[in-house]
Specification:
mainly alpha
Length: 78
């Protein structure tokens, strides 16, 4: 290989490396989001199955209480 081709190869590898470094965090984020969505879906299905089989009432989670509180404050202030 002559010098021109070697420089072109080094440049191409450098550009591809930079592209990989820029795309990698996005790909990791997408994979992480899909994993979390899958876990939430499985937990929702499991809790739906538990609620159908049990006769005791359930208490809303803290997140639901917080969301309802924020919603009522927004309606009052409007």
């Amino acid at each position: 290989m002559d010098t021109t081709r070697m420089e072109a190869l080094i440049g191409m590898v450098t550009v591809l490396g930079i592209l990989a470094l820029l795309v990698l965090p996005a790909v990791i984020g997408v994979v992480r989001d899909r994993r979390i969505d899958r876990q939430l879906r499985e937990a929702e299905q499991a809790s739906a199955g538990d609620q159908k089989s049990s006769s005791k009432s359930t208490v809303p989670s803290t997140a639901i209480w917080y969301a309802e509180d924020r919603r009522s404050k927004k309606l009052v202030s409007s």
